[in-house]
């Protein structure tokens, strides 16, 4: 086999040149080992080489000179391992001349090391997450990856303390470490390796190289990679401690006071709370005004209390089982707010004002036990809010859907995929949803190996080019960093993002369940785990950020707060008489309120006007011949008042609503034409495929950014008919 043949399986680049090379050198064969420099063409690096080769074939000047020289030598027949010639020694179109002596060897080694380093960096970017320290329990032990070994890229232990000179502009548009290194910084290989491990294999693991958009990948690299390690201020670290204390002590307090009551606590994943709070803080700094949250029951009470700000004494009151006069209760709740559901299914809403004056409306949507059913409801609510805020790009940045998931449900329930699959479709997108998976590594009693076929519970996101940030739940600083980064991604790119918060469930599925029946080894380990509050406090003390007296004072202050609030709850009465709505919805009437009798009929002339617009086709619009006959028959029926079909009656009714100023939207697969070809709400030009919507031509003007207009002959509300993916569940939201 020729040398090209041996390297073909290692690089698609070589597969592209094998035919040409073999034709030029049919007798070239050898029995010796491949050149040492050829190691860079193996593993994940061949993808990078392939990308560079594509770029070079389109424009040789768009890559660094060293790449240009390399590809020219390969095209001229040089063996891959011998094609590394320093740029100054080779002119385009000139056959390389072998050099001798230490200078030639040194130059070749420098270039090889620069290339090897670029492939090492890429390997960490692509696969570092596989060996990151994500599991707080340390039970998910993974073997080392050969792709992350420096020897695979031509380095030895002797090279660790050597500086590596990267040619200027070597990064060719790739940001992060490689860009900084090619900008004149020459750190040692040991330091670079240390920073790569800290970035990609510590408490944070990132999957983003599957995203087919260099600009987005560069954005992540820029935010993750830096040769100068950044640290948070003492003030922020102490603030994280305080928020963490509110989360941990909340669960402990409820456990102490109501140890026989189901609460589906967040014990083992308490860092979720500071993560969410910092995410919302960062999003509001970037223009967010409304956050709509959907989540299952796990940790819901903690989120209600510490994120949404439901009065804590009200939560305590709900636990106390105080006698309730149902007659009086029903009388006081004679509206739509009397849900009657259990406390860990209810939602609430709250308007928060920050010290600098910015505001955010937080709402947690009520959710049934069917864990992920709330997903499309949350996204649909956000879509509606954005419509009423102007239905433009600016509205996307003002309203953010935030969905919390369990690991087993996220990978197991089809509505998750259906909802995410709608995210980029016209008339369904909301500018991106932030998905947070509270990954306690168990589904009720089922181990991950039995609950999914993929490596991660979050792998569904890869199908939609969604970045996935994995983070160890026992590292609050890393959690906050990732949650803030997720908010920044969403506001920048207006697309979905996933945070996989790897933690554990301290107790059973509920607090009175026995998990030792099915996971004895896991729960032996959990029993020996310190709380995240204790470990983080010790970390602050050990790093001289705070004294033990300072951390103890913060924690004691939180205990005192819950204790005082608990005493207040014993005599507290709900003055708003509302289970979970902060305010009554405008224009909604209760069951006991009477509405005025409305005229349901329409003026015949108005109906004829609507009918005329339904069947009128613009000049020059090439309508399908069969549809011409259908519309002609429809026009005749409207004029005569006889033979009207249900499709026409439907359109006339919608037209009346539109002229009264009511926005009408229909959605689902095939709604534009109608499954049985009965609707034809959207017409298509047979030559240009241009769309025409008759129901948006009833008045002289339609403002698609206005949901409700003032009724009049010159205005109408917009009509939207939007086909969807073949979703039988999520599209209902």
Automatic annotation (TrEMBL):
Its EC number is 1.2.4.2. Pfam families: 2-oxogl_dehyd_N, E1_dh, Transket_pyr. Residues 38-77 form the 2-oxoglutarate dehydrogenase E1 component N-terminal domain. GO terms for molecular function: metal ion binding; oxoglutarate dehydrogenase (succinyl-transferring) activity; thiamine pyrophosphate binding. Residues 643-732 form the Transketolase-like pyrimidine-binding domain. GO terms for biological process: tricarboxylic acid cycle. Its cofactor is Mg(2+); thiamine diphosphate. Belongs to the alpha-ketoglutarate dehydrogenase family. The 2-oxoglutarate dehydrogenase complex catalyzes the overall conversion of 2-oxoglutarate to succinyl-CoA and CO(2). It contains multiple copies of three enzymatic components: 2-oxoglutarate dehydrogenase (E1), dihydrolipoamide succinyltransferase (E2) and lipoamide dehydrogenase (E3). This is 2-oxoglutarate dehydrogenase, mitochondrial. It comes from Aphanomyces invadans.
